[in-house]
Amino acid sequence: MKRLVTVAAVLGAVAALASEAHALPRLRGGCGPCATACSTPCPAPCAQPCAPAVTYVDKKVTAYKAEWKTKDVECTVMKPVTKYIDETVKYTVMEQKVEKKTITENYCECVNVQEQFTYTEMQQKTEKKTVKENYCECVTVQEPYTYTEMVQKVEPRKQIVTSYRCETHQVQECVPVCRRVRTCVVDPCTGCSRMVWTTVTENVTRCRNVVTRVPVQTEVTCNYVTCTPVQKQGTRTVQKMVPKTRDVVVEYCVCVPVQKQGTRTVQKMVPKTRQVSVDVCTCVPVEKTSVVKRCVTECVATKVVNKVQYCEMVPYETTVKVAVCTPCTTPCATTSCCPPPCQRTGLFARLFHRNNCCTSACGSCCH
User: Fold this and answer.
1) How far apart are CA 296 and CA 84, in angstroms?
2) What does the pLDDT look like over 92-116, one tens digit per residue?
3) What's the predicted TM-score (pTM) here?
4) In this structure, are residues 96 and 282 in contact, taking their beta carbons and an 8 Å threshold?
5) Is 202 within 8 Å of 191 (Cβ atoms)?
6) Closest by alpha carbon to 79, among 306, 303, 300?
7) From CA 277, how far away is CA 275, in angstroms rounded?
8) % helix, strand, coil for the chain, step of 5
9) Close Cβ partners of 2 (under 8 Å, ≥ 6 residues apart)
């Protein structure tokens, strides 16, 4: 609803301005009342103004910087103070009290008693009995058997045998040979010369014998032995175990239980009663008084000086660069009335207040 009211108000203002614009000489523009008010011609315009010159000069100023300082501050601190005081306390102690008292005691006494009892005794009885006994008898028996015998047979055979024959021949080759030679050497320190034996190595051609093995194949006759298996029959003696049975008379022992009577000594516990005097200990409460040391802590106000840091702004002088503007020195002609050029007074100029009007005929213009 608020948006509709705002739109209606804007449309009404636009319509009022449009009706006023129709009453003006031209809708799109016009000089208005300023066109006739200031008809006096203006003098020649001023010369082109010069640009102001900006220079930087040194200037001493007072600035402030923060410095940390320390000062002593006296403050009150509560310090604990410990002291011992004497205090009388009452306490109860359980004291032992021994009294004689006669009581009836029950006890058991060990008494030996003879009593009859029946026991079983195992008596041994020997008896003879004939039993069958199995045993094995060793018997020698001749039995035939077949065995295999390897029969050797010699056969002559011819075969090629390779043997080696050594042949010697000479070979020439260069070998290094060392020999001692006397040479003259000059001492660099003294400049004296002296003969020194040195070893010189030379390559000399020498001959040496080389033995070469030459293979030679010959035909020889060798005897080959071959073994041929032959089946043969024979007789051998063998011992065999033959099972047999026989009757044997043996004695064996038999245990027979027999009931018998006897007398034995037995210890029995017999309950009895007797009067006994005993010491009875009882605890009796007894109140006592004692002086003890008690530790007491009290807080005592004490003044202490503490170091406190604080920040202080300290002024100091410094030099800074300051910009200075130099004004233009070219003079300009003045006039009593220099009306502005013809301003447009159209609809949009009135609507947006972009043009101003003169307040009087030759007065100052509104800017």
Assistant:
1) 6
2) 999 888 888 898 999 999 999 898 9
3) 0.23
4) yes
5) no
6) 300
7) 7
8) 10, 75, 20
9) none
Euclidean distance between CA atoms 204 and 172, whole angstroms: 10
Reported as a single tens digit per residue, the pLDDT across 33-70 is 444 444 455 555 555 566 667 788 888 889 888 889 89
| Environment class of 345 (CB within 10 Å of its CB; exposed 0-12, middle 13-18, buried 19+) | buried
DSSP string computed for 213-242: EEEEEEEEEEEEEEEEEEEEEEEEEEEEEE
Determine the Cα–Cα distance for residues 82 and 137; give it in Å rounded to an integer. 117
How many residues appear in the chain?
A: 367
Q: How far apart are the first and last CA of the chain?
A: 39
User: Which residues of the chain fall short of a pLDDT of 50?
Assistant: 1-2, 5, 21-39, 333-367
Q: How many Cβ atoms from other residues are within 10 Å of residue 365's Cβ?
A: 16
Nearest alpha-carbon partner for 34 in 360, 283, 272: 360
